[in-house]
Give the backbone structure.
Amino acid sequence: MARRNPIRDEIAIVGLGSTEFSRDAGGRSAASLAAEACINAIQDAGIDKSEIDGIVGALEPGAPRPNQMSSILGLSDITHHSSPMPVAVFGLVDAMAAIFSGQCDTVLLYFAFTRLPWNSRSAAKDAFRNYNTMGGGTKAPPVPEAIDPSAAYTAWAQRYIYEYKVPREDFGRVALNMRANAARNPKAAMKAPLTMEGYLSARMIRDPLCMLDMDIPVDGADAFILTTTEKAKKMTPHPVVVHAATAGMVGRNDEDQLPDLTRHGQHIVVEALKERSDVWIDEIDVFFPYDGFSIITLGWIENVGYAKPGQAGRFMQEHWDEDLGCVMINGKVPMNPHGGSLSEGASRGTGHLREAVTQLRGDAKERQVHDAKTALIGCGGFFFNSQGAILKRL
Amino acid sequence: MSEQVDDATLVERFPWVQITHDSKYLYRGWLDKKLLINRCDDCSTFHHPPKPVCPDCWSTKLTPTEVSGGGIVFLAMHLHQGAPAPEVDYAKGPHPVVAVELEGLGGVRFSSTVVDCPVEDVVIGLPVELAWIERYGAPFPVFRKRTGGGE
């Protein structure tokens, strides 16, 4: 495992742009959503579009490719462009590495999300979405018995329940936390109050996970502008920088062959981040555990070291703020204050990254953590997309 | 015998699977109602799903080896909704999906469903044995609750 971290604090995130996240953006294309987010990010950074010489766009179904985005925005000459796999930190580390290695100076990093025909009735009626499939490339239709990347989280959630003898309420607390936080986020798709009774009676999808354990498909987009910290310091006195970032997976990562819950991608990410970081959870002001499925959040809480295996539910209960209706670790550290993928919307971690930067800039309004200086993002799940990042305000 | 089934025919028999040159033996086995799991000729390690080399020693000498298919349910879930299949009716009740740790194979698991068993009995730890059903006109390996006294 690499213990070097020459890129530490060398890359800054100087621009943020987003759309709203909604269950139905109406007659808008993914390119339209991406364009809105990108323009917002470029304007937020206060740079001219001609300064962008790198463009990185995640391979989301239906999302515009970097060459298309460059053409849509009328960018200048580009010397780095790539399309990393979905989930936010893949794009983040690619953009960071490109800048640090001198491929380019300033990157536009974007992610666009559109509900797929099979996960939304209204999306299925949209004739222009029918070609969008997750993964793509294969004509083979799915079968019920496929323990694919999505269903696998349910299978391992049952294993978690079996091994640690925990109630469904432990998963419910994850959902409740996100919903309460989303109510304080104007961009969030799901703001209606949620109770434990509501969680327990929600429609079961793949037992033991119900619809409230699964992130909410949305239309929307996020974009970021990254550049060298040296440049960023000329733009703002206290830029938000990436202190450490990594992806992680174990060799035997097939969804149904993963040896057990005690060593998977999250463990590799945690070990790598600890090696490369000056800070860990005692110094963290805001915590961003991914919540594409509630079981992933329980995993992050435990694997970063807040709780022992099987005790994430108890930990959330012990650190529950009854007034706010959400987790406040040691009375001060919130968990996904923007509402996460479960309630803000399924942005595969870009919402977590955006909110981390927003918090560190002090721009989170009623959600603002007092004097937040450090954020920990645990992104992705167990198999092939575990990743993490520590962000700091200089 | 399925040995004679050519690649194009194999693809036609399993239109719902993306078959490769690494996994073709597995599906040829299904046509004979045999569950074949890759075993390395050099280090004897089993692996699944089928890979082009042994993940342990990188040998390319791999033999798809018929196994009993008995084992213990390691992962289990009950689908209230999911992908369609001809014999699966979610309206009648949840469809169980399991990953079974196959006995004697060093932790290799095989994922399918469990038939002829109340869904509430399909839980982690259940001993199962291999069975075969038809899916889209071709044999499909499933599990059922183990009945005999074991091996």
